[in-house]
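User:
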Amino acid sequence: MLTLHGKIVAITGASGGIGEATARLLAQRGAAVVLSARRSERIDAIAQDIREQGGRAATCVVDVTKAEDLRRLVSTAIDRFGRIDVLVNNAGIAPISPLADLDTEGWSAMIDVNLRGTLNGIAAALPAFREQGSGHLVSIVSVAGLTVSPSMAVYAATKNAVRTVHEGLRKESTDGVVRTTAISPGYIRTDLADSMADPHVREQTRKNMDAMGIPPAAVARAVAFAIEQPADVEIGEINVRPTVQA
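Assistant: Predicted structure:
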């Protein structure tokens, strides 16, 4: 039977939404989790709740745009639990708006968090994975990159860049040491819309989430499925969307 017992998993953006749901589910299934985010009080509360339910959890305050914070996250996992088996790159923002709005600050922020944050995670985790002889990189991407919609050009570009990096890493890792999985959610009921700059886009996104969004636990189950596979099986990409989403 496939199991997560003994797995050590670090998760970015774990203060809510998909990250929180993933931490809770993996801990329930026997993994030790290290929750990271900028909001220390939130991840500390979630970790405490996990421990009270019999799980193993630690925390690390992380801003994914800072490479040293990701290195500290990997070190925290190793110091607390002896190794790091999986890094879930989940932190992301979506201050989306039409290109004509020229929101260059929003563009830069998405590049820094969505793309550079993932690269910082890879740079921090790969040396540990190589030293251990195994490791798994999971990144939360988006179906927005599969069909680009108005106002989502830069957001989709950052997510597609992550998808490309994953494929490159996969092809560089056919020695069996490092596995990669890119998971692309559709409408998931999270607070992602809060980061959207354009008020009309933000309101429409919230309406779509309310109308068709599925729980973050749906994505968490996909993460669990990917990382519980035996070492000779790699789940390269998973799309998770509501059945009613076009």
